[in-house]
Design brief:
Layout: E1 4-5, E2 8-9, E3 18-19, H1 22-32, E4 39-43, H2 51-58, E5 61-65, H3 68-77, E6 83-87, E7 102-107, H4 113-121, E8 127-135, H5 136-143, H6 153-159, E9 162-170, E10 175-176, E11 183-190, H7 201-213, H8 219-222, H9 229-235, H10 248-261
Parallel strand pairs: 4-5, 4-7, 5-6, 7-8
Antiparallel strand pairs: 1-2, 3-10, 8-11, 9-11
The protein binds S-adenosylmethionine (SAM).
S-adenosylmethionine binds near residues 45 and 66.
């Protein structure tokens, strides 16, 4: 049976685990360090454990909540001039409609955390930073370096645009209902413009996905359908390596060589 928290029945399908440990809440808010006048947006405010101290520090907050009951409660609790509440799915929300630079925060619903991170990565230009609580294992994959077992598609796709830093772990007992796994706080800060120049993003995404889809294979085999031997020799990337040995810069080089090789599509 699902747990009842402050008169609300926690919904598993919305990934609801509410923070209840005041020390952890204080540490998260201190890690975010909100300043008056900053544009903060919280994803999944829930019962407002982070929302209230964030509003107190920043003066105003935008929040996106999918659960109608929780949205109604938040509307009752906070006046509109303090909380702009958007009732809807953060996965479909156009973050370009909010003022930049944005500081994005949240104890994310774990069931949609990866697609949410990919969605938000598309707005990196408008983001000052993002501070999230996620499953520890996901945070380790986000921050992983080449050569480690945790390094994969998520690491490369996020590190293309952000510096990723794990802040601290949060034990299951800090939440109600108590989750099965440990969580971590992670900070993502957009990299300076021009750090990596990707010619064609879909090609980059395709190469990274294909390389890690068969991560035990060599690049030659995993990318058989995409990259010729000539591409490897031109980029100086050893085709006998596995994907996990390639840095983000290597993937960018490989993808750019491939997109430049594509036949020009004629206009007529
Ligand atoms: C892990 S709970 C965190 C709640 C609260 N921030 C806390 O720390 O106690 C995740 C919250 O995200 C909401 N949520 C789930 N999926 C969502 C989505 N796609 N868009 C926006 N909010 C979502 C849930 O209803 C829930 O309130």
């Amino acid at each position: 049976m699902s747990a009842e928290v402050q008169g609300h029945r926690a919904r598993k399908r919305f990934g609801q685990n509410f923070l209840r440990d005041p020390n952890i809440i204080r540490r998260i808010v201190a890690a975010i360090d909100p300043k008056p006048g900053e544009h903060l947006v919280e994803i999944g405010p829930g019962l407002g454990a982070l929302t209230e101290p964030l509003i107190n520090a920043a003066g105003h907050l935008t929040a996106i909540e999918l659960d109608r009951d929780l949205a109604a409660r938040l509307r009752e609790r906070f006046p509109e001039e303090r909380l702009r509440l958007i009732e809807g799915d953060a996965l479909r929300f156009d973050f370009a409609t909010l003022p930049a630079p944005l500081r994005v925060v949240g104890n994310l619903p774990y069931n949609v955390s990866t697609p949410l991170l990919f969605h938000l990565a598309g707005y990196a230009d408008r983001i000052k930073d993002m501070t999230f609580m996620l499953q520890k294992e996901v945070v380790e994959r986000m921050a992983a370096e080449p050569g480690s077992a945790a390094y994969g598609r998520l690491s490369v796709m996020l590190q293309l645009r952000f510096a990723v830093r794990k802040c601290f772990d949060v034990p299951p007992g800090a939440f109600v209902p108590v989750p099965k796994v440990t969580s971590s706080i992670v900070r993502l800060t957009p990299l300076p413009r021009g750090r990596y120049e990707v010619d064609d993003f879909p090609t980059f995404a395709r190469v990274v996905a294909a390389a890690f889809n068969q991560r035990r294979k060599t690049l030659r085999n995993a990318l058989k359908a995409l990259a010729s031997a000539e591409i490897f020799s031109r980029t100086g990337i050893d085709a006998c390596l596995r994907a996990e040995m390639l840095s983000v810069a290597d993937f960018v080089r490989l993808a750019n060589a491939l997109s430049r090789e594509k036949p020009e599509t004629s206009a007529d």
